[in-house]
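ok new one. same drill as before - structure tokens go in, u give me an amino acid for every spot. 238 of them this time. try not to just spam alanines like last time pls lmao
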């Protein structure tokens, strides 16, 4: 089921940009928009979206005051703040009022997408966990912080370390996308037509980036075998 989104932004060009971005991200549906704070609050109260993309500087009622009013009235809506403000006081206030992310203008599509995909993953995990352990809470907290989100493949590609090649990484990712269950270095090496030593470097990088899970498989004899598995939300085509 798609996540309902409302955009509150007073700049028509930025508003249209938000609309285009949301339409490019799977799993989200735009259900409303407004260009001033008062109208925006009324819209939130009426529609009750799961997530609001909220600009801080808006006429009538600024974003921080709107967010504070939303919390005071008990409306169960999450908020991502978007603003040109760089000062720590504004950012701190947004976090104190419960914003789950804070995007500073100007920003890229990848940063916007990252915020929504992290939120999508957060919702997925919330819905799949009934009785939370401390570890579950810690994982959820990590997904809503500014740390790198799980399976942010665009970020992984952009920050590829020295010594690794983007074309080879793309090839490895494409092959991994088609795998089901656990796979080994030898499996990917055979399919990619590149050496095991090279494949291992790329798989280790993907594990460090939290795109893959790694385990040691112990057989009856011989050395343990490293095996890998995609993270649950892994997708090259997101």
């Amino acid at each position: 089921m798609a996540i309902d989104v409302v955009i509150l932004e007073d700049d028509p060009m930025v508003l249209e940009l938000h609309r285009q971005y949301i339409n490019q991200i799977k799993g989200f549906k735009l259900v409303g928009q407004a260009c001033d704070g008062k109208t925006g609050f009324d819209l939130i109260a009426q529609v009750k979206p799961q997530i609001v993309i909220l600009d801080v500087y808006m006429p009538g009622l600024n974003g921080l005051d709107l967010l504070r009013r939303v919390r005071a009235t008990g409306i169960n809506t999450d908020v991502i703040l978007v603003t040109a403000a760089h000062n720590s006081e504004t950012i701190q206030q947004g976090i104190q009022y419960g914003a789950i992310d804070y995007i500073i203008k100007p920003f890229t599509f990848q940063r916007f997408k990252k915020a929504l995909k992290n939120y999508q993953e957060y919702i997925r995990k919330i819905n799949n966990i009934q009785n939370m352990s401390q570890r579950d809470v810690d994982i959820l907290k990590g997904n809503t912080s500014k740390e790198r989100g799980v399976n942010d493949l665009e970020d992984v590609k952009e920050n590829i370390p020295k010594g690794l090649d983007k074309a080879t990484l793309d090839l490895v990712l494409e092959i991994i996308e088609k795998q089901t269950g656990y796979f080994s270095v030898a499996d990917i090496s055979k399919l990619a037509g590149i050496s095991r030593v090279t494949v291992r470097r790329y798989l280790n990088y993907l594990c460090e980036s939290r795109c893959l899970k790694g385990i040691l498989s112990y057989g009856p004899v011989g050395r343990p075998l490293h095996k890998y598995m995609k993270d649950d939300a892994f997708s090259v085509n997101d």
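Residues 221 and 227 are 16 Å apart (CA to CA). and btw The first helix runs from residue 12 to 24.
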